[in-house]
Amino acid sequence: MPKGGNVVTDTAGYDCDVLISADFVLASAPPEAGVSGHHVIEDAALAVSAGRVGTVGRRGELANLRAKRRLELGRSLVLPGLVNAHTHIAMTFLRGWADDLPLAEWLTQHIFVKERQLTAEIVELGALIGCAELIRTGCTAFADMYLFEDAVAAAADRAGLRCLLGEAIFAFATPASVSAEQAMDRVRGLAERFTGHSRLRVAVMPHSVYTTDDAILRSCLRLADELGLPLHLHVAETAREAEDCRRAHGKGPVAYCRDLGLLRPTTTLIHCVVPDEEELDMIAASGAHVAHNPRSNMKLASGVAPVPAMLRRGILPGLGTDGAASNNALNMFAEMNACALLHKGHSRDPTLCPAATVLDMATTGSAAALCWPELGRIFPGGPADLVALDLRSPNLLPLYSPFSHLAYAASGFEVRLSMADGRILYEDGAFTTLDIPQLCDEAEKLKQWVLKTV
Ligand SMILES: [Zn+2]
User: Ligand 1 centroid vs 322 CA: distance in angstroms?
Assistant: First the structure.
């Protein structure tokens, strides 16, 4: 399928692989148009061939296309696959293990003790469960930071999802790497392995300012430049972190990143709960991205990121779930809902973070944070990453605005179709790439591992 999406009849006489029709499709302009929003096409259809979207239009206009398969979805809403701008997908093994605790106690006594003994096998099992949840709840791409990221790559590849892979880089030894240098070698290995892969890409992901140092962050920047990779790191997650940074470096964590040269259009700052006004200006001026994780920030009582102030400066944050230990869902619908409600309640202003903006955050905003701007939008010639929501679900009746339902009424479990790279990953109750009964058995194995690891 050529760019531009014109239908080309193949040698077998078909015009497309799949012709999807539905009552509503949310379509967008291509990324080069510079528009982040979506528009509704009613009584719509779209053609998919070789992993790309072809023509998008009214059902009648596409009716005569010869398709290998016709998917008549009827009372459904087709939207771009949601994009999770930040997670630690493998952490499903700690879902519900330790809740309602102070951050330091939670991290040191309940999370780190398990992670110290991590293996690639545990990471892959945890990641497979996480991938299943993403597929089930309409997410087709995610940015991931964790240890043994090659095991996450294996899980994402098996699941059929798109992933921006980031081996976490720390100043100290981890079960995956004895040093930051070794972690960076793992990044190099991943980058070599996945160059040209259609669904897996690699980023440089130093964990944070407070778990690395100047020299490591400079090395990460050099590595990102050398390999042409995006860079993601946790920044300004808590007031404590900002205070410590001011004490150590005489400036807040965002300013510290700016002075190191880290703020640029290929960098994503994860969390940004406590930047000051000046730091927000720095982010806006630099073109750096933000990954907002409202549920994790609420659960860990980190605070409320100044998203309305970001939006006023022209920063459209991406939306992420963070890991299942601090959320505890990997469900982008839950995240959209939390985002749409949190900023209204917190600011006592019901006009903030309107539904359509929150959808933009979970699609085009997150795609920008992954430095993968063609994701999160349905347009002719774009990637065939899309999901369909069953509008017959009672909680979605009646329907005035698809945007409203996506942000406020849908749970994510109305998703009836998930497709990434033109391949169907989930359809009406059936996963096509993952064996759910087997994952249930493996979840039990993970639980036993957690219980016996002290
Ligand atoms: Zn995180």
Answer: 5
* C-beta of residue 29 within 8 angstroms of C-beta of residue 36: no
Expressed in angstroms and rounded, the spacing between residue 112 Cα and the centre of ligand 1 is 14
Nearest-angstrom CA–CA distance, 318 and 367: 7
Residues, CB within 5 angstroms of ligand 1 (ion): 322
The span from the CA of 153 to the CA of 194, in Å, is: 9
Which two tokens mark 225?
Answer: 């430049």
Q: Tell me the CATH number for domain 16-81+377-421.
A: 2.30.40.10
Whole-angstrom distance, CA of residue 315 vs CA of residue 119: 38
Paired tokens of 322 = 């963070």
Query: pLDDT tens digits for 350-400?
Result: 999 999 999 999 999 999 999 999 999 999 999 999 999 999 999 999 999
* Spatial CA neighbour of 139 closest among 403, 392, 362: 362
- Confidence at residue 103, expressed as pLDDT on a 0 to 100 scale: 85
* Superfamily covering domain 82-369: Metal-dependent hydrolases (3.20.20.140)
Q: How far is the CA of 251 from the centre of ligand 1 (A)?
A: 22
In angstroms, rounded to a whole number, what is the distance separating the alpha carbons of residues 142 and 81? 10
pLDDT digits (tens, 9 = 90+) for 75-115: 999 999 999 999 999 999 999 999 999 888 998 999 999 99
